[in-house]
Structures are given as C-alpha cells and as structure tokens.
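debug: dumping io for the single-chain case to check the tokenizer round-trip. Nothing else runs in this session.
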Amino acid sequence: MLLQCTACAHFGLDSEADIAAENCYAYRYGDKIRRINFNQAFDWCHRSARWGDANSQTLLAELYYLGLGGKKDWQMAYEWYQKAARQGHAHAQYMLYRMDKNSQDFARRQQAEYWLKQAVYSGYKLALQESENVNER
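debug: decoded output
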C-alpha cells in the first residue's frame, strides 16, 4: 500500500534550519529537556543565523554583545543585529539604536534615530517608551 501525502511538505521531519533555531532558543533559555548552555546556544544560534532566521540572528547578536558563549564582540553583535533589523526584527532595531545613539561617529548617531523610528513602527514597547522620553527632552 502506497501512502500518498500531497499536502504535507516534510511529514514530521524538521529542516536543519528548524532544528538549529529550536536548539538556539533551547540552549539560550533552557527548556524541559535542555539546560541553559551558552556555548551550545552560541553554536546553534550561529547555525540558524546563517540560514537567515531573524530571531536567531538577534539571539546570536545578544550572545556576542554580552559575551555569553564566547568573548564579547560588539562589532559582530552589531553586524548580526543589522541582519535581523533589516528583516524587521524590532528588538534588533532597538539594539542598533542603543548601540548607535552614543557613538563617537556622527553618521551612526544619526542612524540611531532611524533605528528607533523603525522599532517604534514595529510596536516595540521599549522603543515606544524611549521615543516618548526623547520627545520630552
């Protein structure tokens, strides 16, 4: 007997990208099976981020930013936040604002305003609060 499955794309099998994204989160925050392990999170987030997953790109940027699972590297954090922000990830947009607003570079300080507006447009709560504070000054 032949089982025909025309409506199911992969019939219960997760893609490598899906597995990497799941493990990225599981090792970053822990779950019922896995404990928090920043080294594992870094590895899995990097795999998933390369597949283009904006959530994983943001988590990888966070790991670089905070130095979890490896050494602190703000340049790499910035690059991964940019990739996620360009896909509309609100937290990544807000973090670019935070990183750019106090930069010594005038162009980056101007770019900060753009990223704050993008995060506000995305409805990100921290960006909305920050925007209110900026407007009150």
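debug: round-trip ok. Residues 1-11 have pLDDT under 50 and may be disordered.
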